[in-house]
Amino acid sequence: MPRRVKVCQEAVRPVVESLEQRVLLTTIVGGGIDPVTGLPLVTQRRYVDAAGHTAVISVGGNTTAEFIFAHVPAMSGRISALGDLVPPPPPNMTVMGDDLFSIYVSQSDANSFISVTEINTANGNPIPFNGGAGGFRVNNAQGGPSVVVNANGGTGQLLLGARTKSPAPGDNIAIVSRTFSGAFGVRPDLGRVTAGLQIAPGLDFGKFFFGGTVIGQVVATGSIDSIYAGNLWTGDARGITAAQFLSRRSINFSIGGDLHSLLVSGSIGTHNDAALDQPVFKSGFDARVGGQIGQISVGDSLIGGVDAIHGRVTSPFGAALEEVEGRGINSVPASPASGWFRGFLEGDASVNNDTFASAQALPSYAGRKGRSTVTVFGQLQADPRITDYVDYYSMPLLAGQAMTVQLSGQGGLLTAGLINIGIYDPDGRLVATDYPNVPGLGLAVEGLPVRFVADRPGLYRIAVAVAGDGDFNGPGGEFGAANVGNVPYQVVITGAGDVGIGGILAVNNIQDGQTSSVYGFFVENGDMGAIEAGGSVF
């Protein structure tokens, strides 16, 4: 006589486990560090996104990360599944791709990097600045019906997140999170999966570049060298109302240690700010950094808040910063963004630091007996092929404050006769250099410290240019520029004070909603650097 089902279940239960929720996984492990060059070794994967673009994920160094993709069915307003990437199809075939939704880093260090960029399928070259991520339907911050806003052009077509595919007016609405139970590859069971980037507790990270728009959150408990995104809409990319912006504070960009550079070629917290103090789209961007911030540099506008606690953190970077611009000896003119595959930020003028206006802002680190210092490691690639003849950095100073700047070569290399340094005041006047006052007398001043006392408060620029370029503006200036090739250098700056934020800089507008004491720009310990906007500050 057959045994009843219940009896059978009881019999096999001790030896048969119940099935967990299963998903296909995209866990990518970097290749470690090259023992000869000291550079990260890279692992790459390709995927097709929901708009049909082909993209490449590059993971370098001692890095392990889970890449979670979201499938939104046609005519749907929700994520039906989280899973693996959709690989590019064979020639002459097409596939329906999925957007990269969330990245979880389970292992990393200061040399780790992740870059995600669209590629030209004809030649495989990265094109992270090509186009924009398209339209998003958002709640109108000024009231009334929802509106469709477009991500800034020239910021990349990819999306880190997802959006609806429903008919209007439910179309193209950002999806910022999705419920999920259980572990997902190397991502532990954290419950809800939120769009964006998350780094496991206790880890530092090097560089993260995304050629498109990032929504959801960015979370790390350690220090990060640099983050680049075409647009950064953390918070609620569906749009919050003006009343919510004034009353709701939700940290959605959180770095526990230091953040040397946050560079966005488009906008932060909005699509632009053409409406000035009446913008139609606000995502509620709100950043908190436990240590110091070097620069927040925005190619369009910033709406939101920034809080630098400037606490004492243990950072693997110390008081040393890298030049954010990644052009160098391995750059390829035919593929100007090829450095993205190796962890170097290049490919567009928006990420260069070649002019007074595009200087990389620096913090300063308090040392013994109150002395402050910061060291910047950079390089010039002064040749007709790459044309990187000058680099600019900026440091905020108070009137009467003294600053000492010294230029030298990396690794003990000599730079005399190859490069020189100059200091500009906030009005753009060259006020100090390491050129001798009387040429031809053989005065040994190149490479020696240059001491300068500020006569007014503001953002001072420090320029490094090829020797002979007395106006520090590269080819085409009064003095011209010599082709000296690749020159790695370091600049040591002392006496600039205890600066918690080097600079918050926007080409157009900055708005913080400070009247409500909810958002704003704060340094809880130490000094605030510069807040500069080419348009208005609200």
For the report, how would you describe the main beta sheet? 20 strands, mixed
Mean pLDDT: 89
Count of runs of 4 or more consecutive helical residues: 2
Strand content: 35-45%
Given the C-alpha coordinates, what overall shape results?
A: globular
Count all strands and give the number. 37
The gyration radius over C-alpha positions equals: 25 Å
Q: Which structural class should the secondary elements be placed in?
A: mainly beta
Return residue spans where pLDDT drops below 50 for at least 5 consecutive residues. Answer: 1-23
**Helical percent range?**
under 10%
Question: First CA to last CA: what distance?
Answer: 83 Å
Compact overview of the structure:
This protein is an all-beta fold and 538 residues long. Helix content is 3%, strand content 39%.
What does this protein structure show overall?
The structure is a single chain. 3% of the residues lie in helices and 39% in strands. It is mostly beta strands and 538 residues long. A hairpin with a 5-residue loop joins strand 2 and strand 3. The chain has helices at residues 5-12, 242-247, and strands at 27-29, 42-48, 54-60, 64-71, 81-83, 99-107, 113-118, 135-138, 147-150, 158-160, 162-165, 171-175, 177-178, 193-194, 196-199, 205-220, 224-234, 253-255, 259-264, 285-289, 293-298, 302-308, 320-322, 360-361, 365-366, 372-382, 390-397, 402-409, 419-424, 430-433, 450-453, 458-466, 485-494, 499-506, 510-511, 521-523, 527-533. The strands form six sheets. The protein has a 20-stranded mixed beta sheet that branches. Strands 23, 25, 26, 28, 31 and 33 form a six-stranded mixed beta sheet that branches. Strands 24-27-32-29-30 form a five-stranded mixed beta sheet, with no helix packed on it.
